Amino acid sequence: MHEMSIAQSILDIILQESGNHKVSRVLSVALKVGELSAVETESLRFCFELLTKGTPAEGAQLDIERVQVTCRCQDCGSNFTVQELVFSCPSCQGVRVEMLSGRELSVESFEAE
Amino acid sequence: MTLKVPVVRNILEANERLAEDNRRIFRQAGLLVINLMSGPGAGKTSLLERTIEALQDEIRIGVIEGDIQSSYDAERISQKGVQVVQLNTGGACHLDGNMIKSSLEALDLDTLDLLVVENVGNLVCPAEFNVGEDMKAMILSVPEGDDKPLKYPLMFQESRVLLINKIDLLPYVNCDVGKIRERALQLNANLEIFEISCRTGEGLHGWADWLRQQVSARKAGGDDAET
Hints:
The complex is a heterodimer of chains A (113) and B (227).
Chain A: H1 3-20, E1 26-34, H2 41-52, E2 61-67, E3 70-73, E4 79-81, E5 97-101, E6 105-112
Parallel strand pairs in A: 1-2
Antiparallel strand pairs in A: 1-6, 3-4, 3-5
Helix pairs in contact in A: 1-2
Chain B: E1 3-10, H1 13-29, E2 32-38, H2 44-55, E3 61-67, H3 72-78, E4 83-88, H4 97-103, E5 114-118, E6 135-141, H5 148-151, H6 153-158, E7 161-165, H7 177-187, E8 192-195, H8 204-221
Parallel strand pairs in B: 2-5, 2-6, 3-4, 3-5, 6-7, 7-8
């Protein structure tokens, strides 16, 4: 439901950056979206398409890379990928874990002409 | 010619900046700020009413009420005699840093010990937007079911406290509190959990004691209260 405000923030960033680089048309935008982010990617594409009408980013594709949830165990130091939302260490069963990835929500780059 | 422009910017950076501004204002005023979240009807306003009744004589409480529309909740809270401001999001599914910032003028922060931001009823979106709070607290009521930690992991992950409300209804609903605990702790081992009923008052002492300690920690140490 908040994909519209996220799409607007993406567009704001793109328009600002494309002004800095003097480009006339944005072709695609690369995003990183963590698996734990509460973002529905199809809804985000739809909102982005609506918002970009009449802007230099009209028609631009969103290339979305989903990022797995990974953690580091603070007890035994091992890194692991979180399976089925269980945030405990598979090696030592420790629960003091630091999240390394999975909450990303970023614009990585865009292609323009 | 096609050009690839590297960016690497957090999409929510504008909100993060505003939340940070708010946090600075809250720190200066020395109060504890809690972002209270849940699905619609889980009991956010009822919890606030009970909490105000329990702590009003010792802690000065203020409330920001977030709703899509209506001022019904703010009227309920203002009957308890505390400072309250109503925010209507006009359709938006969550509160953000900017909305909170704009509501601060209506509150006298220097006369408060605790500010609770009652977010829009929604188990998804509010978890993604910081408003400058010290901690997030969430309510899950037992009629919603014990599968919710599996379906809405982010909110459980982001919260410092989980209040399992309406436990007086357990004989009538298909919900296993043990499963809620187990699933929520798998997502977030540091989660503080209270089983409560805002209707009967059961379990509310434990919550009020814990909250009192958090407010004291903030007043004593400034940055000691958990973030």
